[in-house]
Design a protein that fits this description.
Layout: E1 7-11, H1 25-33, E2 37-41, H2 49-52, E3 57-60, H3 84-97, E4 104-107, H4 109-117, E5 121-123, H5 126-130, E6 144-147, E7 149-150, H6 155-160, E8 166-169, E9 174-177, E10 182-187, E11 193-198, E12 204-207, H7 218-235
Parallel strand pairs: 1-2, 1-3, 3-4, 4-12
Antiparallel strand pairs: 5-9, 6-8, 7-10, 10-11, 11-12
């Protein structure tokens, strides 16, 4: 009898003015390709704990900026698509999930959610503090590529198996302070923190880049494969 695929919850963007919950299909396709069963998690659920009773793994997806008030930060002209309902939902879900053994992957905004949920702060606009030698995004609606340096002894290093992979980048904010319980797993050459991983959680990794946008890169797809396998092990 074929075993059931693990159920992987993926957070989505909120309604804002569109009355639509949405997510790029790349996230769904990456989970399916890795052997998981994707399910979308729109913001607004009043009891996020109920979600954790049903899913086997979580992906905190990318999207608009977190309200700077959530991390006692200052506003910036480049801050966009702030959705207070999504912020509340995802920050609450992240805090609850990190107190379980559910495998967790944060992607771009998802990294920022996990960092802010545990007391970290963000850089409001990367070029203001790190310059523009590396284009972490070319435009709000367009991604770019650059390399990152993976910390040799990190869990991420064992997954990617490449010390300096090319990644798909699409962000203008980044981690300012790494909160307790997390360690840096990758940086860009300009010093921007590109990945963190939890020190005690069984499987919690957060990336500032977008592995779902590199479907033909086995290094990036191993991240999704590992997440799904960890979720499958948890089912057992």
């Amino acid at each position: 009898m074929k075993s059931k695929p693990p159920l992987i919850g993926i957070t989505t963007a909120g309604q804002l003015d569109t009355r639509l919950f949405c997510i790029r299909g790349d996230y769904v396709e990456a989970v399916r390709l890795a052997g998981g069963l994707p399910i979308l998690l729109p913001p607004g659920e009043p009891d996020p704990g109920l979600i954790l009773e049903r899913v086997d793994g979580l992906i905190f997806s990318g999207g608009g900026d977190i309200d700077p008030a959530a991390y006692n930060g200052s506003s910036h002209p480049t801050v966009y698509n702030v959705d207070e309902q999504r912020d509340r939902f995802e920050l609450s879900l992240a805090k609850l999930a990190l107190n379980t053994d559910i495998p967790i992957l944060g992607i771009c905004r998802g990294l920022e959610i996990l960092v802010v949920a545990t007391g970290g702060k963000l850089v409001a606009h990367v070029p203001d503090e790190f310059g523009s030698a590396i284009a972490h995004r070319t435009h709000q609606s367009r991604h770019c590529e650059h390399s990152v340096q993976i910390c040799p002894k990190s869990r991420l290093a064992t997954l990617i198996k490449a010390p300096e992979p090319q990644i798909v980048s699409w962000h203008h904010q980044a981690v300012r302070t790494v909160p307790p319980g997390w360690r840096i797993a990758a940086r860009a050459s300009d010093g921007v923190i590109e990945a963190v991983e939890h020190e005690t959680h069984p499987w919690a990794i957060a990336l500032q880049w977008h592995p779902e946008l590199a479907p033909n890169d086995p290094c990036q797809q191993r991240i999704f494969q590992s997440l799904v396998e960890a979720a499958r092990d948890r089912m057992r």
